[in-house]
Amino acid sequence: MAEPVVTPGATVVEVPQSAAGTLHLVGIPELPARSTGRTVRFAIEIEDGLTIPDGEFAAAVTRVLVDARGWQAADGVHFVAVSPAEVAAGTHTDVRVVLATPTLTAKLCAPLDTAMAQVSCWNGSRAVLNLQRWLRGAATYGQDLESYRTYLVNHEVGHGLGHRHAQCPTAGSPAPIMVQQTKSLDGCTAWPWPTRP
């Protein structure tokens, strides 16, 4: 069953609650050269049967990971893309960023219950992004879907880098990236990056 959703720009889209229930790896755009910091190898997976183009999702995730405001600057890491062929050949990945329907998200995130709040998660080596949130965003970000998606990638990958949830330090200040901003800003203002503005 799909729920009609009005996204920014008033385009009505369908958010499927389930699809094939299986994943496929997608190609990753070439990254800017960077050699400093701890190496974090990442791959990108999408649930089979989604209508979102592989390249579009991979480009969005990659833009966030290599942005100057992201984890490379904040955590002293550098991301290295692992291609589908390399994964198939046995190359290790530290992080797999996954886009999945709510049904598969619940399965991949278990035992965490993602169904009630339609949240995403970090589990094992996967940053599982809930399609419901990717398409709908969250009330905390209003109509700014692009910033919310940036937050979603940074928050779940942040868990993969070893960061735990945080709280708002001062009312009115930009929320630390590890605040559960999907649920509440806890008195802070929305901020989608691990570096400070």
Beta-strand residue fraction: 15-25%
Principal-axes shape call: globular
Structural class: alpha/beta
Topology pattern, helix = H, strand = E: EEEEHHEHEHEEHH
Note the total helix count. Answer: 6
Low-confidence stretches: 1-10
Radius of gyration: 16 Å
Distance separating the two termini: 40 Å
Q: Please, could you describe this protein's structure?
A:
The protein has 6 helices and 8 strands; from the N terminus they run ββββααβαβαββαα. By secondary structure, it is α/β, with parallel strands linked by helices. The chain has one domain (2-160). The strands form 2 sheets. Strands 3, 4, 5, 6, 7 and 8 form a 6-stranded mixed sheet that branches. Strands 1-2 form a two-stranded antiparallel sheet. Strand 1 and strand 2 form a beta hairpin. It is globular and about 50 Å long. The model is unreliable at 1-10 (pLDDT under 50).
What can be said about this structure in brief?
With 197 residues, the chain is an alpha/beta fold. The protein contains 6 helices and 8 strands.
Characteristic terms for this protein:
globular; six-stranded mixed β-sheet; 6 helices; 197 residues; alpha/beta; disordered N terminus
Describe how the helices and strands are arranged.
Elements: E1 2-7, E2 11-16, E3 23-26, E4 38-47, H1 54-66, H2 71-75, E5 77-81, H3 84-88, E6 95-100, H4 102-109, E7 121-123, E8 126-130, H5 131-136, H6 145-160
Parallel strand pairs: 4-5, 4-6, 6-8
Antiparallel strand pairs: 1-2, 3-4, 7-8
